[in-house]
Structure formats: C-alpha cells, structure tokens
User: Fold this.
Amino acid sequence: MVIKFGPAGLGPSDSAEKVLERYHKLGLKACEIAFTYSIYIKPEDAERIGKKAKELGIELSIHAPYFVNLNSDEAEKRAATKKRILDCCKIGELLGAKVVVFHPGYYSNKGKTDEDRKESYDNIKKGILDLLEVIRDNGWKIKIAPETMGKINVFGSVDEISRLVNETGCAFCIDFAHILAREKKRDYEKIIASFPGKEWHCHFSGIEYGEKGEKNHIPTGKDNWKELLSNLPKDKEIRIINESPMMVEDAVEGLRLSEKMK
Assistant:
C-alpha cells in the first residue's frame, strides 16, 4: 500500500512554488488546489506550478467550484456546471493534476421518493458522460471524480458514486468524513467492495454532524487517523487530502502515524 498525504489548499499562484517546497520538506506528497470559489490559476502559471510539483514528487488534484449541479432543473445551470468542471480540467491538464473532484448535484425534490433519486441519478450520469466525451475529444489525461457527499438530501451516497464509476468509467473521491456524517458510521468492508479500483483519491478530516448529515469540518484527531489507517486496503495506491481547519498539520500527523503503523 502506498499512501500520499496532503492538504486541501495551495494558496495564491505567486507563492505556490514556495508553498510546494514547504509541503515537500514536511514529507507531503499530495496537494489539492481549491478552485471552490474561482478558477484562479492562469494557464501560464499552471505550467510553472505543475513543473515544480512534478520536480518535488507532489501529486496535484483540483476541487471544482462549489456552485455546480448536474441535476439542476435549468438547462443553463447544467451547462454552466459542465463549463466550470471542464475549465478546471483545462487548467488541471496544464498543472499535470490527476483528478478534478466535484460535487455531483442535488436530488430532485430533495430525494423524497425513489423516483426522485432515480431521476437525479440518470441526469447526473448523463452529465458525466457528456463531460467524459469532451475530455476524450481533447485528449486530456485528467480524470473527473464525483465525491461522496455528507448530507442526506444531496446526491452522493457510496452506492450512487460507486454505480456512476461502474456505469461511466469516471474516477471517484471517497470522502470518509462525509460518509460518517451521512451514514453515522464508516462501513469499511462496504467501501472497499464498492471501489475495487487500484487508485483511490480520498478526503479526510474530523467532522461535526447531525440527523441531516454534515455540519462542518473540524480538526482530524489522532484516534480518527488511527481508525482510518488501520482499515484502509493494503493493495491500493491511495491519495489522502486533509480538509480540516488545520489541513497541513493534520496531513503531517496522518503521515507520521502511517509511518509508525507500518
């Protein structure tokens, strides 16, 4: 098993190379760039940053903007969602990033019935197939990864994301904090069975949650790390991005614990 740890943030383009050097010195080998509010890295900067990351052995990924929804009732919003994800792919390709993580969308009618959930799945699947066609046409290597989500009224259960992977060939992001918030437990046997692929892209942190699921991310905690690391499969290449308020410190803690547990 190979695990690469990193934080969910790089910061401004002009300081990116220094930040990557800092991460490298800490032993981190992954970094997710947060395009969550805007795709802020320009093409000319992306090539420079990507070259530095490759030189340091740091694998980059991207988190797409939050305001996306492949199941919107409005065609314009679905089109805007696809454009935002593809814009991330364009910059990601220049960065040499492995994946673009995105939130797939909301349930129709808040997922109140099985029919609502089926309609949501079909619409999101179609959107992903459309995106994959453009990615193929452009010859891009980057993958798109719908994420397991933490609120019960939002599309993105383990079963739904696993089915998308099986039926479209897209990548995936397993967010272990979201799974806990949504399902009130982490069924590692089910997760491993649901995602048999050799390469896993994961998110992790502590999380505060209630009956409806996720409330907010919190510091990860040593026991949280130990539980995750002791349950991960041994036959995969795993990238773990920490999304806690202390993302760098917590990523380093995960790295140190994993080395002790070997």
Q: What stands out?
A: Residues 162 and 193 are 9 Å apart (CA to CA). The longest helix spans residues 114-138. DSSP finds nine helices and ten strands in the chain.
